[in-house]
Amino acid sequence: MGNHKKLLQFLRPDPAVAAAPKPPPPSSSDDDDDDYACSTPTTPTTGATTPTTATTNSAPSSPFAMSPWTQLPGLGFGAGDGDHHGAAGDTTRTGLLGSLVKADGHVYSLAAAGDLLYTGTDSRNVRVWRDRRELGGFRSSSGLVKAIVVAADGRIYTGHQDGKVRVWRRASSPPEDPAAAAHHRRVGSLPRLRDVLTSSLLPSQYVETRRRRAALWMRHFDAVSSLCIDAAAGLIYSGSWDRTFKVWRVSDSKCLESVIAHSDAVNAVAAAGFDALVFTGSADGTVKVWRRGSRGRKGRDTWHAMERVLREGDSAVTAIAVSVEARVVYVGSSDGAVTHWQWRRGAAPGAAPRNGGALRGHKMAVLCLAVAGRVVVSGSADRTISVWRREEGADHARLAVLRGHTGPVKCVAMDEEEEEDGAAGAPRRWVVYSGSLDGSVKVWRVSESDGGAHEDAMTPARTPAAARAWKGASPSPLRAWTPYAATPEPKHMGAAWWDRDVDALACVVAIWSVTTSAARGPGGG
Q: Is residue 16 part of a domain?
């Protein structure tokens, strides 16, 4: 996507930063961008610990480094390997490059665009980063930032808790002024204001919401949970907790269609990039496949018809990612599994995809997914990031488990690292950005080759028994697909609490504690 030489050049180990005090709380001023702190991992010396900002070079060596289990192939601890360095010191190894920390709340969304990184938080701020430095940011008037996508023309679309999609554009500036890259201005919203004003006068433009209230069909009346861009079709898709997904035309920001897709909150929407397919995943446990058609004058309007139910289960669907070149769709769910299906090339329209099975690398819910090349990355509420490599057919090898976050990993993004001079023929490498509810963004390097893994930056999981995903090894409650003609009424699974802030779980525990105390009375017992 972009050139990451500058980013990798500045992400150097800095042991002093790890001991730095916690930054002060952010100022109430919207323009105050001085209260940030950036940290990078120190150069590790043993294979015993996972990378955190508290790691120092003076840490004693662990006997685990001499364990025979660390001599397995692909762990970076073979015989004769006496000089171990982290990813920051070895440009071919998978591992942690650095951490970007800002006293700005939980990180809910991020997007990489060229040499810029955009991060969205629950403080309504979108921060702009380059070369390990925060350049600045921009702030919306309301609503935490739950989704960010960047269009090819440079426009940034942000989805918010208040149900709005806002559009931003970077201010034009001379190339010699790098600081101006952080200057963004709002250029509109979805839907457009004039469309809202025109439609509000017509009773036929209103629909009844689940709260027995009337709302314009073109507006989301609940949080926007997901955004995606189909560049080839010139469309933007937005999914919302109001159970719908909406289709927008990029050229004029017009809302073309609103589809009531599920019986519960829509947590993910993804354009396939092939066969005019769109996938939606919901808290009701289903993944649905929609096929896009054209209508209207000159075919500029769209319509979407459901083709099949790809998945149906009790666990909520939390994330969807698509590998366009391999025609594979990955689905993350609250049971910790990543299921995947592949569409065959040359198959007749409407042909059923092949169910490839499930990747099980997490103990808690999968919250986010990203795919690039043959590499699949999944972030989870268990605070880890699993890295998989797609092999021939439906098999996948788990390359590593990246550890370092102290809170659930809410969002991930990938960008290809530019090859260095003289590195022709080397395995492809990727820069992975992970945002967490611990308030930090971590930057990792991931290689398609599993030979450069290093224990200091991750916990490898390449073993003969767990190297590949299995097909049919254990019974699955999920259906591979259901033809549209035979699709039953989806089962309503209640509120989308798996994707709605993790703080909700704390509220449930607090209510249970108060109730228990009241039942026991003043005497306890």
A: yes
